[in-house]
């Protein structure tokens, strides 16, 4: 098995390298891979920023920690010994309660972000809030249909049917139903350590300890390690070691 795994990694690295060279010739990649040399003694510096955040005037840090421990679910894990108490965001920048500035590389962690308080996004959201809030899908409203039409233009036939959902969990629920309906099979493989939602349906896909409970959920979901999954596909391709 070790020999097969080494061959799989070698084939994967070779395939990836060839794709990178094909998409980006050496001459065009040179500026991208050219970076200044840094040593262990190089002091990092932040890029300039012309935005000044408002003065923080809300909960003290100690009070926020106390409320978090007393009233928020343990699932809301901070992952840091001293979690940041964020105060304000602007484009790629975040500012904490003490006025420290951070360059945001998390991008919403498990979601896609276009930056914080982007002026264009803020203006469109404000315009919508001034006209109409949530009603129901049983009524029509032009922005929803305009969005569906623009999104459908990007999709090939027959994938030009739009189903709008309100969360990633609901989107994964729908994906599971569609996959099972199309394939006529119920089993779904998910990676250990992966988060895919906290709804009763997607909890079977989610393989993070703090989200798991001793209750039936996620029928037909099988968790595997990424190495097992790659080796399984390696053998399906007929590349297993003889």
Automatic annotation (TrEMBL):
Alphabetized SUPFAM superfamilies for the sequence: PLP-dependent transferases
GO biological process: glyoxylate catabolic process; L-alanine catabolic process, by transamination
Keyword Nucleotidyltransferase found: no
Catalytic activity: N(omega),N('omega)-dimethyl-L-arginine + glyoxylate = 5-(3,3'-dimethylguanidino)-2-oxopentanoate + glycine; L-ornithine + glyoxylate = 5-amino-2-oxopentanoate + glycine; N(omega)-methyl-L-arginine + pyruvate = 5-(3-methylguanidino)-2-oxopentanoate + L-alanine; N(omega),N('omega)-dimethyl-L-arginine + pyruvate = 5-(3,3'-dimethylguanidino)-2-oxopentanoate + L-alanine
A GO MF label: pyridoxal phosphate binding
Cofactor(s) the protein needs: pyridoxal 5'-phosphate
Location(s) in or outside the cell: Mitochondrion
Domain of life: Eukaryota
Principal EC category: transferase
UniProt main location, coarse: mitochondrion
EC number: 2.6.1.18, 2.6.1.40, 2.6.1.44
An annotated GO cellular component: mitochondrion
Protein keywords: Aminotransferase, Pyridoxal phosphate, Transferase
Family, similarity comment: Belongs to the class-III pyridoxal-phosphate-dependent aminotransferase family.
Biological function: Multifunctional aminotransferase with a broad substrate specificity. Catalyzes the conversion of glyoxylate to glycine using alanine as the amino donor. Catalyzes metabolism of not L- but the D-isomer of D-beta-aminoisobutyric acid to generate 2-methyl-3-oxopropanoate and alanine. Catalyzes the transfer of the amino group from beta-alanine to pyruvate to yield L-alanine and 3-oxopropanoate. Can metabolize NG-monomethyl-L-arginine (NMMA), asymmetric NG,NG-dimethyl-L-arginine (ADMA) and symmetric NG,N'G-dimethyl-L-arginine (SDMA).
Subunit structure: Homotetramer.
Name this protein carries in UniProt: Alanine--glyoxylate aminotransferase 2, mitochondrial
Lineage: Eukaryota, Metazoa, Chordata, Craniata, Vertebrata
